[in-house]
Amino acid sequence: MPGIEHCGRCGASLRVASMVIDVHPPRATRWSKRRRRWFPSLRLPGTRLLDAWQNVKTTLLGNWETDAPQSALFWRMIVPGWPQLFCKQIIRARLLFGVYVFLMLLGFIFLGTIGGSLFLGLAFSCHASSVLDVIFCGTQDTVSRIRYSLLSLVLLVFGVYYPAGWLVSWVVVPQRMMANAAPFQLGDVVLYSRLTYLISPPEPGDVVVYNIQRQRVQGALRGGNAIFVIEGRRIDRVLAGPGQEVVWENGELTVDGRISAWLPLNQSRRPTHHRVRIPANTYFIVPSTEAMVAWNSLSSRGMNVCLVSSRSIFGRVYLQTQPLSRFGWID
Amino acid sequence: MTRFGKLEFEPDRHSPEKVPDRENTAFDSSHWLQQADSHRRCGHYENALRMYSRALEEDKSIVEGWVGQVQMLVLLDECPEAEVWSGKGLELFPSHGDLLAARAQALCRLQKIKLANVACDGSMTQSGQSAYRWMVRGELWLIA
Fold first, then answer.
1. Which residues of A touch B125 (CB under 8 A)?
2. What are A277's strand-pairing partners?
3. How far apart are CA A235 and CA A265, in angstroms?
């Protein structure tokens, strides 16, 4: 019939006789033949890589079709790889999910560093790829693809990652050290939780992140008088709670008449003589990581810097993630 | 020959080199296919390949020519080229069993067993019968 270009039975082109095509096959060069003759089992590494890439392309990037309902695919996009698994694309599903989990894990380990941000971004890209893979499977024209892709990515960001990030931020907040503050060093990253102190108040022994309002304290330095300005975020241990009496004597801490088992994080820097009763809603925290202050030289008034309001405590530090050599719980 | 010798007043007047029309009909695609077949049976694979190409120059729709080219490339141990050329043939004749079998043979000799199995299974499901498909299948099973 006029207009038909392919045989309906075998699919052969009916216009082959009139086509302008080359009928001479490609031939191997002389050097290729010699190489194949001398090394019959050797194939060029590039050829192997090319074959592997062709297999990858066919398996992972090739088009696939599904007749699954859109609603069933839509809500499964929350998890990368789940729509592909639902449509029996097992290899794609495993690859997408595996890469996503791996990148999220790396992002968590390096949280608080540039690398961590990079890995989390790549994990989001992997998730977006899973979504786009499904969209490209179900649409053909470019405009629809762009429209559905933008819509899905916006829903992904504001429907999944933003709420998830808000929830996670109550439990996992990275704090990076911006200076050497023994026992921490520049670049160390610790994680703290804001949720802990919504449920119960801080307890003596907790390592916390807190803020010191700008304070000028008088003390001595190298035999002379000195004014120390202390402000900003610190990390240290809560030594006593509201209503308790704290006595420092010869570097030993006594709380309510009993010797305390807790000491500041930097045990080499602690007051020698001090007595105070902790007011309500206040906690006793010695900022021992402050390198400039000689604690044994501060006056009683200067020691007020150790009285921290409960509102200034941000959360409880529980894990150090960077550097990996000192990865571990903080207690 | 005079300066007017080339004028076409009488056909074949001064052109003894011109081949008669009756002889020209022998050099069509079927003739070249026969030549290719005889060369192949003698083991002259290069000549056979050349004859298949001439047959296809006359008529590109002859599937036997495409199959023969791939087979000759395989026999000449140019299997990567045979794989490429079988792909080209399958673009024109997607469901031809012998062409699929030729592709399977090329893939088998390139140690791409999985792809060769796929092509071989495809050739067996197509219509028609030929010993070549079974021969390729046997070769594939021997290798695998």
1. none
2. A245
3. 8
Measured between beta carbons, the chain B residues lying within 8 angstroms of A23 are: 53, 56-57, 60, 65
Taking contacts as CB-CB distances below 8 angstroms, the residues of chain B near A26 are 81, 84-85
Q: How far apart are CA A71 and CA A161, in angstroms?
A: 21
Kindly list the distances between the CA atom of residue B100 and the CA atoms of A154, A163, B56, B105, in Å, as whole numbers in the listed order. Answer: 47, 54, 19, 9
Q: Token pair of A217, please?
A: 């304290």
Distance between CA atoms of B60 and A73, rounded to whole angstroms? 47
ipTM reported for the complex surpasses 0.95: no
User: Cβ of B34 under 8 Å from any chain A Cβ?
Assistant: no
How far apart, in whole angstroms, are the C-alpha atoms of residue B33 and residue B62? Answer: 10
Give the residue-averaged pLDDT of B94-104: 93
Which residue of B lies nearest to A10 if distances are taken between CA atoms? B95
> Which residues does residue A329 pair with via DSSP β-bridges, in sequence order?
A319
- Residues (pLDDT < 70) of chain A are 1, 4, 10, 13, 16-17, 41-48, 50-51, 54-63, 65-69, 219-221, 291-302
Q: Does A24 touch chain B (CB under 8 A)?
A: yes
- C-alpha distances out from residue A74 to A135, A138, A154, Å: 10, 12, 14
Task: Report which residue type is found at A140.
Answer: Q
Q: DSSP character for A295?
A: G
The size of chain B, in residues, is 144
Of residues A123, A199, A203, A113, the one with CA closest to residue A161: A123
Angle B123-B126-B129 (CA atoms, 0-180°, nearest 5)?
85
